[in-house]
């Protein structure tokens, strides 16, 4: 009889407008508060980063020129350059990238595609992830013992590259695993259903879809590796060298070592040179990262 | 996929080859002007000695571009670790070789010669706002750096103010610390509230920013930071080029390089490099902030070198 009315009443009981608008207001307030907290986080990070970059550029900007890239280090700051360090770092990169690509991606493919899912596999996986957190100096000690002494590579580029490569491997393996895992099962099933073997499926279907993620992982790992000082000092990389390397078995020096050495000198000009060295290293990293993004975008569109 | 991987592989191989070839060319180019020596000269050791050795290597490579000189910075102790196994030709040191290190060298059949190359004055520095302390004795230094009951400058000398002291010292692995330990601390442990740093520039910043601070490091770091630091006279003697050179400054110290005798005898480039080093050490060390020794000392070195290298 008084149905509409009672319904209205019920509704009114169900949703008390005042309390609802109260609660909405609270939620909106909370929303605002968190928005500003997150914004503050971003601003803080950017502020620190831009202070660092400003500091480095204002100190070192005037020192970066062609001579700086072409000269050998010198006791006279005006004549000092980082040519041997730059060449050393290039050599390291050229050796590390194929090394971690072949070994790291290989290991990831085995774990993801071939290995039986049992305790041993998951034990190995956990250990690989843990290795990613081991301090770099420990890899340096390992490199000194195995590559420098046992394998008798001496203080060569090869020993340095193997050490840094070993250090980057866990990151590459974990990143590649993630990339392989994110490839849809349907793609594998479709390929297998067409009669392709496991290897054909992996190589022609899974790997191409996973390659953007894999490459990102490799570039990040290698970027970290070429910025490392401690492991290279452990394997006995030189700080000053009068020649550039002639083979992978030559002695060498690298950018972070040169920068580290300049920062520890008493004269203020050397601090500026260190800042200039940081600019060069940062530029290299930006180029590498841009290349990674370019490659990633290109292949993401293809597949 | 396969084309991509192949081309990536080809690209990386060719780039290795190109860089390799480019470097090869460089070296062949250098050989043209050579009645030159070749081979390697391997040095490692103290970061204190490094600036001198960098200068020497820089000058030497202008004269003998075919000789590959490498100078590492593993620290005095780290350098000796490699030296006593015969791995390196030279070990740079800001202190003398220790007994254990010498024993290790003997065990491995490595004979060596100690060559003093320059002098340094360990400088005790305070904040410029410190207007009370001008002069300090070794005894007072020993007391303030080892006795945990010393809290303020007044505890060191009664007419100094009650300003709290902060202590800054190079890390315990450094040769500079070893020297201070021997000359001032008498092998007693340094006080626990000392701030230790491997980077002398950190010490400079620390002392320059704390009113009651005291710290020590090599003379070069003091000279470069004269505007923000003040050095104390030790036993009444101010650290200057002259007082360090004639050793009247009590904390003057020699800095060394140790050369492997076998390398000196058998490798002509090492012998040549050693002579070059000895002849130019005085001038080059002053250029980088150290103090040269008296000429007689270098003449003595030269005699020793000739005896071993045989010429």
CATH structural architecture of the largest domain in chain B: 3-Layer(aba) Sandwich
Compute the number of helices of chain B: 12
Total of helices of chain A: 12
- By CATH's scheme, which homologous superfamily of the largest domain in chain B applies? Periplasmic binding protein-like II
* Structural class by SSE content of chain B: alpha/beta
- Helical amount of chain B: 40-55%
CATH first level of the largest domain in chain B: which class? Alpha Beta
Beta-sheet strand percentage of chain B? 15-25%
Question: Which series of helices and strands of chain B comes N to C?
Answer: HEHEHEHEEEHEHEHEHEEHEHHH
Count of structural domains of chain A = 2
The order of strands across the largest sheet of chain B is 2-1-3-12-4
Largest pleated sheet of chain B: 5 strands, mixed
Distance between the termini of chain A: 65 Å
Strand content of chain A: under 5%
Task: Specify Rg of chain B, calculated over alpha carbons.
Answer: 23 Å
Unreliable stretches of chain A, pLDDT < 50, 5 or more residues?
none
Intertermini distance of chain B = 65 Å
Q: Total strand count of chain B, please? A: 12
CATH architecture of the largest domain in chain A: Orthogonal Bundle
Mean pLDDT of chain A: 89
CATH class of the largest domain in chain A: Mainly Alpha
Question: Which helices and strands appear, and what pairs or packs with what?
Answer:
The complex is a heterodimer of chains A (303) and B (311).
Chain A: H1 3-14, H2 17-60, H3 66-70, H4 83-114, H5 119-131, H6 136-150, H7 157-181, H8 185-193, H9 198-226, H10 230-234, E1 240-241, H11 255-263, H12 268-302
Helix pairs in contact in A: 2-12, 4-7, 4-9, 4-11, 5-7, 6-7, 7-9, 8-9, 9-12, 11-12
Chain B: H1 2-31, E1 39-45, H2 50-63, E2 67-71, H3 75-83, E3 90-93, H4 99-107, E4 112-121, E5 123-126, E6 135-136, H5 138-146, E7 166-170, H6 175-185, E8 195-197, H7 200-209, E9 213-217, H8 219-224, E10 230-231, E11 233-234, H9 241-245, E12 252-260, H10 261-266, H11 268-287, H12 295-309
Parallel strand pairs in B: 1-2, 1-3, 6-11, 7-8, 7-9
Antiparallel strand pairs in B: 3-12, 4-12, 5-9, 5-10
Helix pairs in contact in B: 2-11, 11-12
């Amino acid at each position: 009889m008084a149905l509409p009315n009672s319904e209205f009443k019920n509704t009114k009981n169900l949703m008390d407008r005042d309390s609802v608008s109260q609660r909405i207001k609270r939620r909106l307030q909370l929303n605002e508060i968190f928005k500003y907290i997150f914004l503050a986080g971003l601003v803080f990070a950017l502020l620190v980063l831009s202070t660092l970059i400003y500091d480095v550029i204002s100190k070192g900007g005037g020192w970066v020129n062609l001579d700086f890239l072409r000269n050998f280090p010198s006791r006279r700051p005006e004549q000092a350059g980082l040519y041997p360090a730059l060449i050393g770092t290039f050599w390291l990169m050229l050796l590390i990238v194929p090394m971690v690509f072949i070994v790291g991606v290989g290991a990831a493919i085995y774990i993801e595609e071939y290995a039986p899912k049992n305790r041993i596999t998951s034990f190995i996986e956990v250990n690989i992830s843990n290795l990613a957190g081991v301090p770099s100096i420990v890899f340096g000690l390992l490199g000194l013992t195995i590559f420098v002494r046992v394998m008798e590579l001496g203080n060569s580029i090869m020993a340095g590259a193997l050490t840094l490569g070993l250090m980057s491997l866990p990151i590459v393996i974990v990143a590649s695993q993630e990339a392989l895992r994110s490839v849809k099962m349907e793609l594998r099933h479709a390929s297998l259903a067409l009669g392709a073997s496991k290897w054909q499926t992996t190589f022609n279907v899974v790997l191409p879809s996973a390659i953007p993620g894999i490459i990102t992982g490799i570039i990040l790992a290698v970027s970290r590796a070429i910025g490392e000082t401690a492991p290279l000092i452990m394997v006995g990389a030189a700080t000053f060298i009068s020649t550039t390397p002639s083979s992978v078995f030559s002695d060498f020096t690298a950018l972070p070592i040169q920068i580290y050495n300049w920062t520890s000198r008493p004269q203020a000009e050397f601090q500026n040179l260190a800042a200039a060295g940081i600019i060069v290293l940062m530029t290299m990293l930006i180029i590498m990262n841009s290349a990674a993004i370019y490659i990633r975008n290109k292949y993401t569109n293809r597949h | 996929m396969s084309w991509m991987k192949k081309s990536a592989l080809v690209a990386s191989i060719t780039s290795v080859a190109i860089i390799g070839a480019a470097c090869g060319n460089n070296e062949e180019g250098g050989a043209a002007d050579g009645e030159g020596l070749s081979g390697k000269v391997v040095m490692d050791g103290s970061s204190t000695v490094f600036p001198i050795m960098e200068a020497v290597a820089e000058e030497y490579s202008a004269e003998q571009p075919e000789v590959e000189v490498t100078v590492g910075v593993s620290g005095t102790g780290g350098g000796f670790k490699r030296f006593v196994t015969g791995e390196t030709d030279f070990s740079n040191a800001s202190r003398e070789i220790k007994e254990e290190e010498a024993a290790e060298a003997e065990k491995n059949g490595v004979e060596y010669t100690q060559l003093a190359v320059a002098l340094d004055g360990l400088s005790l520095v305070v904040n410029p706002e410190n207007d009370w302390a001008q002069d300090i004795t070794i005894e007072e230094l020993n007391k303030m750096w080892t006795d945990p009951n010393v809290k303020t400058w007044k505890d060191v000398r009664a007419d100094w103010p009650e300003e709290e002291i902060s202590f800054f010292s190079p890390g315990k692995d450094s040769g500079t610390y070893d020297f201070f330990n021997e000359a001032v601390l008498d092998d007693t442990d340094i006080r626990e509230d000392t701030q230790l740093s491997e980077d002398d520039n950190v010490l400079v910043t620390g002392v320059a920013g704390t009113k009651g601070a005291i710290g020590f490091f090599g003379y070069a770091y003091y000279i470069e930071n004269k505007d923000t630091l003040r050095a104390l006279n030790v036993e009444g003697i101010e650290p200057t080029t002259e007082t360090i050179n004639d050793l009247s400054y009590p904390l003057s110290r020699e800095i060394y390089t140790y050369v492997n005798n076998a390398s000196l005898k058998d490798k002509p480039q090492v012998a040549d490099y050693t002579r070059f080093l000895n002849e130019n050490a005085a001038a080059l060390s002053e250029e980088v902030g150290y103090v040269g020794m008296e000429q007689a000392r270098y003449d003595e070195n030269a005699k020793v070198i000739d005896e071993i290298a045989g010429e």
